[in-house]
């Protein structure tokens, strides 16, 4: 009898492992249409030859997908420092854009952790937008370009959401509720203040390091060539 009970428990454990396995996660398909545009979708297309985007080996599964949250956050911090951005800002953008889901696809076609639009991904040389490292590197690189161009984090965030042309046309954050809410939420998560009148806590510092590197941060821990917005 004891043997039968143990055998039954073994089958239960095996069954639970199977149904909880990450193999049930969403499959992402890649295909190229008649105009040569590359598409990524979680729905199997009927008319096109597809390539299945598979998971990388050796990464722990998590609620965000095939990758552990610790891995994704560590990767975000490393790439943020690579482009002289504060990790807190980059992680706040990721939280807003994809909720840390490397396989997120929006209704407008934005893809991956940093929700890269197909055209932007192509311009940045992205081959697989669902690869966390490739997506983050391109997205953070693009965000850094916007910050350098506008010289203002809030305008750069607005440009990331609504496009740089729109921000230039309005001379700042456009009067769109989505974009204003987007900027406000990220700034709140990043600084804890959003559009608060407590300017000292919401201040963004531009720091020029000794090697010429420009760093934007809300924490003025460096003592050289500091200016603020």
List keywords for this structure.
single chain, 229 residues, mainly alpha, Lysozyme, three-stranded antiparallel β-sheet, 9 helices, disordered C terminus
List the helices and strands and how they pair.
Elements: H1 2-19, E1 28-32, E2 38-41, E3 51-53, H2 69-82, H3 87-98, H4 118-123, H5 132-150, H6 153-162, H7 164-170, H8 177-191, H9 199-202, E4 205-208, E5 214-217, E6 226-228
Antiparallel strand pairs: 1-2, 1-3, 4-5, 4-6
Helix pairs in contact: 2-3, 2-5, 3-8, 5-6, 6-7, 6-8
Short overview:
The chain has 229 residues and is mainly alpha-helical. Helices cover 46% and strands 10% of the residues.
Describe what you observe in this structure.
- The protein is mainly alpha-helical.
- It contains nine helices and six strands; from the N terminus they run αβββααααααααβββ.
- The strands form two sheets. Strands 2-1-3 form a three-stranded antiparallel sheet, with no helix packed on it. Strands 5-4-6 form a three-stranded antiparallel sheet, with no helix packed on it.
- A hairpin with a 5-residue loop joins β1 (28-32) and β2 (38-41).
- It is globular, with a radius of gyration of 21 Å.
């Amino acid at each position: 009898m004891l043997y039968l009970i143990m055998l039954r428990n073994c089958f239960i454990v095996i069954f639970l492992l199977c149904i909880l396995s990450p193999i049930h996660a969403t499959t992402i398909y890649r295909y190229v249409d008649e105009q040569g545009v590359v598409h990524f979708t979680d729905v199997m297309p009927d008319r096109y030859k597809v390539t299945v985007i598979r998971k990388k080996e050796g990464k722990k599964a998590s609620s965000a997908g095939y990758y552990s949250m610790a891995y994704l956050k560590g990767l975000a911090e490393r790439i943020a420092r690579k482009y002289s951005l504060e990790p807190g800002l980059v992680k706040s953008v990721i939280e807003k854009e994809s909720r840390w889901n490397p396989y997120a696809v929006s209704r407008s076609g934005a893809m991956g952790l940093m929700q890269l639009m197909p055209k932007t991904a192509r311009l940045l040389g992205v081959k697989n937008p669902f690869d966390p490292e490739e997506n983050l590197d391109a997205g953070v690189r693009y965000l850094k370009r916007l910050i350098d161009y506008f010289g203002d984090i809030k305008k750069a965030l607005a440009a990331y959401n609504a496009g740089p042309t729109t921000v230039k046309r309005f001379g700042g954050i456009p009067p769109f509720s989505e974009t204003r809410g987007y900027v406000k939420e990220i700034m709140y998560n990043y600084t804890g203040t959003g559009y608060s009148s407590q300017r000292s806590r919401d201040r963004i510092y531009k720091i020029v390091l000794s090697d010429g590197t420009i760093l934007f941060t809300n924490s003025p821990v460096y003592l050289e060539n500091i200016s603020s917005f």
